[in-house]
Design a protein that fits this description.
Structural class: mainly alpha
Distance between the termini: 18 Å
Radius of gyration: 13 Å
Largest sheet: none
Number of strands: 0
Helix content: 40-55%
Order of helices and strands: HHHH
Low-confidence stretches: none
Strand content: under 5%
Length: 78
């Protein structure tokens, strides 16, 4: 989610972003299947949306963005 605030891209780009654009301790690489499983687990665990909200507003604060409206994609993947 944070990557979309910086450089919007489709979910398919998540593995490349996690492998090439950011530093995640202990993660040397990630393939598309791993990225989808991780996103599914986060979505399942974050039933109230608190994690998504915290990440969004942290990124907005870092980028000095003002937030007037927040849209969420509620489509099921898979």
């Amino acid at each position: 989610m944070a990557n979309r605030a910086v450089a919007p891209s489709p979910e398919l780009a998540t593995a490349e972003w996690a492998t090439c654009d950011v530093v995640i301790d202990g993660l040397e690489s990630m393939d598309d299947d791993q990225a989808y499983r991780a996103m599914d687990r986060l979505a399942e665990a974050d039933t109230e949306g608190a994690l998504q909200e915290a990440v969004f507003f942290s990124a907005a604060d870092l980028l000095n963005l003002s937030v007037d409206i927040l849209l969420s994609d509620s489509r099921e993947s898979g």
